[in-house]
Amino acid sequence: MKNRKLRYGMIGGGLGAFIGPVHRMAAGLDGEAELVAGAFSSNAAKSRKSGGALCLDPARAYGSYQELISEESRRPASERLDFVSIVTPNNTHFEIAAACLRAGFNVICDKPMTMSLAESKALASIVAKSRKVFALTHNYTGYPMVKQARFMVKRGDLGPINKIVVEYPQGWLSGFLRGAKGSINPWRMNPAQAGASCCMGDIGTHAENLARYVTGLEIEELCADLTAFIKNNPLEDDGNVLIHYKGGARGVLYASQISSGEENGLRLRVYGAKAGLEWRQEDPNYLIIKDPSGYKTTYSKGNPCLCADAQTGGRLPFGHPDGFIEAFANIYREAYKAIRAEVAGRKIPACDFPTVNDGIVGLAFVETVVASAKSKTKWTKMRS
Prior knowledge:
The chain has helices spanning 19-28, 44-53, 65-73, 93-102, 117-130, 144-155, 174-178, 191-194, 199-215, 308-313, 324-344, 356-374; strands at 6-12, 33-39, 83-87, 106-109, 134-136, 161-169, 219-227, 238-245, 250-256, 267-272, 276-280, 286-290, 296-300, 380-381. α5 (117-130) packs antiparallel against α12 (356-374) and α6 packs across α9. The two termini are 39 Å apart. It is α/β, with parallel strands linked by helices. It is built from twelve helices and 14 strands. 36% of the residues lie in helices and 21% in strands. The protein folds into two domains: 6-140 and 328-356, NAD(P)-binding Rossmann-like Domain (Rossmann fold), CATH 3.40.50.720; 144-317 and 363-374, Dihydrodipicolinate Reductase, domain 2, CATH 3.30.360. A hairpin with a 4-residue loop joins β8 and β9 (250-256).
């Protein structure tokens, strides 16, 4: 493969969207990829208008994802898309990703991967048959100090893990309690679009994924309590989960979108027999290690003492903060290594990005939490 930018198309993420521009900034941050095509809305006129706003060739601003796949598949290899980025509502992820993979396109998809565990397993089969790259944007794993935390846990610095506390409070849905105008479009509260869960499917899966990424521990069983504080909302906006991990560790996971005043408070604490650690997304460039005596050591992003993954994950010298977009871009950058190999016909290397398997675990977590919340016995084995 010649040394050139990867060509990609985007499905979803048009004018007025939040996550689409985030993906575009992340995809282009390192100058390795260029957006050349898109189907940015289910409304054909809005999609083409979005394409114009992004300065695309009008011939490659499509009215539907089906049109994008059909037309882009006909292009010669010198023009053809190398991958497609999917940033649509949850209920469309499976059908769009499956169609792209079957048409021979690599895929980077927003999370949650699908609407159900059954769909996620079906998609995994399609990924395997296609032999294409599939990356899932659990973007918080891209932070340098999260990678340092994982390295230190693997190295044994904390000793055997006894307890994990992970929380993800937000307050944006509180506006619906007050009936405030201008609140975020509540499609996530619609089961037909969001699936079986609002809060846990949206941000609880991020919390579960972060804890699993850092510690490597898998959930054995859990006990969940879900609540819909917003009147007439069929899906929960707050959840609390007690967790038993395989191997004996215990955990607490709390996710909420009605925690008034909270912004994006993802926070992880891991306690081992020898030491504990703490990382906060709102202050992401620092990792705190705590020993039993109460002594704390703070590791900072960009410091030369960090592990190789944390070093390469940071783009700026210490004292210059890397943030949300940079962490997101690290997922894309790792996926590009695999995509370049696939396009060139080489063996796809091991890379540090969430895969279809992480999507399966995420949906298993959501379905187990929902089942537990409805169960009278409460403690529920993790689905697989």
